[in-house]
Specification:
With about 200 residues, the chain is α/β, with parallel strands linked by helices. It has a single domain, classed as Alpha-Beta Complex (Maf protein), CATH 3.90.950. About 30% of the residues lie in helices and about 25% in strands. Strands 1, 2, 3, 4, 5, 6 and 7 form a seven-stranded mixed beta sheet that branches. A hairpin with a 2-residue loop joins strand 5 and strand 6. Helix 3 crosses helix 4. The longest helix has 22 residues. It is globular and about 50 Å long.
Length: about 200
Amino acid sequence: MPSDFIYLASTSPRRQELLAQIGVRFELLLPDPDEDAEALEAFRPGESPTRYVERVTLAKAAAARQRQARRALPPAPILAADTTVAIGGRILAKPADDADACRMLTELAGRTHRVLTAVAVVRGPRIEHRINVSRVSFARMSAAEIARYVASGEPRGKAGGYAIQGMVARFVRRIEGSHSGIMGLPLYETAQLLRDDGSPPPATR
């Protein structure tokens, strides 16, 4: 029988909100204190943004499956995801500090970039995944505007140094693709994976 909930292998409040938005019940399946979760996101030389986000998401999913088995948790599908920002073939990861966030936003200002989010669903030995690619065009931003935004603290821990659902939205000229994907969980692809996997589909109203 399909489970009536899924495990979410993510600390992101945005992903939790997005799953709740489409009516999917979930329980968090987070790393143990001795797990080096950050190591999964390390870059490899010459790796493309698409390959990177796919590899990291599948690694997160596999780690969560091991976590589920280690804790002897009840069976249920597991969802994992990862998001990265790219200009051409270059990845803009989470900023190391405020200066790094300023550098990223200065580079993004007045340009169009890609946001890639991969999502994976684990059920037993099988892992299915999909990738959403969206494009975001920023208006020009002055150094003072960038500094004020960075001072807000919002860029910390965000790929590319910004959160599309936050204050930076006033500089977003255009979005092509999935707004939820840019936030960190493409809901269309997620819903399709959950249906394909036999887990509970989004609740109808």
